[in-house]
Amino acid sequence: MNLEKACQALSEFLEPDQLLLNENMSKHTSFRIGGPVDLMVLPSKTEQIQNAIRILREYDIPVMVMGNGSNLLVRDKGIRGAVMKIADRFSQAEVKNETVHAQAGILLSALSRLALKSGLKGLEFASGIPGTLGGAVTMNAGAYGGEMKDVIKWACVMDEDGEVTVLDKDSLALGYRTSIIQSTKRIVLEVFLQLKAGDYEESRALIQELTKRRREKQPLQYPSAGSAFKRPVGYYAGKLIQDAGLKGMRVGDAQISEIHSGFIINLGNATACDVIELIEKVKTRVKEQAGIELHPEVRIVGED
Fold this sequence. Notes:
Layout: H1 3-10, E1 19-24, E2 36-41, H2 46-58, E3 63-66, E4 72-74, E5 79-85, E6 93-96, E7 99-103, H3 108-117, E8 120-121, H4 133-138, E9 142-143, E10 146-147, E11 152-158, E12 164-168, H5 180-184, E13 187-194, E14 196-197, H6 200-217, E15 224-227, H7 237-243, E16 250-251, E17 254-256, E18 263-266, H8 272-290, E19 299-301
Parallel strand pairs: 2-5, 3-5, 4-19
Antiparallel strand pairs: 1-2, 6-7, 7-13, 8-14, 9-10, 11-12, 11-13, 15-18, 16-17, 17-18
């Protein structure tokens, strides 16, 4: 892995502040946990993403793509290779009639506000989801009865060779917290959303109601990665965890939230090891108590 030569090649089309060496991943995840990555790349254009992927492959440097890190747990020794963060530097959006064409790095909360301001409805459910559009498409994010598959028309994606293609909603194979993006390791670049004309006051009232419910029922005052486990068919992970007597359980500074048992929170100095150990304890106890296998919704990456 020739990181120095790769950085020299990357610096020909990226600014110095777009290449971060030995960057601590705890700065880039909502969990506020994680060791350093060898190199973080912060692209602002599709061409930069394509060229960076090509160069990193040429120098045999593994690369992981992330959004704003709201569903990511990075292990304590960090990540060897490169991380490409597609977030606020790649976040333009344009509204035309009842459609929105947006880059993958825009936050869902910002996209929801844009739709509201433009008199469009359909994205109210996404107003409190703390992730980027690209990440939301990759995992078909959803909340309060809405999912990304309800509003996506097509997505522009790039494969590992840098080839760009357009996939319609059916081709994206959007299911419960999954899509073809995950299984094929593609990168979401742009998304075309089909919304509907709405009433500004009605949409604003719905967003305010959903925000109120989140604040009452979710531990938003602590770092977390949202729901720690996927919802088993016919059950709710939070209720299974609570019924197993695990609410408030701690490993180090990682804790099952006392507000919502589906969340694992960082009380201040939690390590990835703390969180992973707590996840395993929860899985074991719920399996013993209810016979249900829980699967983490958080993406765990990096080295122990």
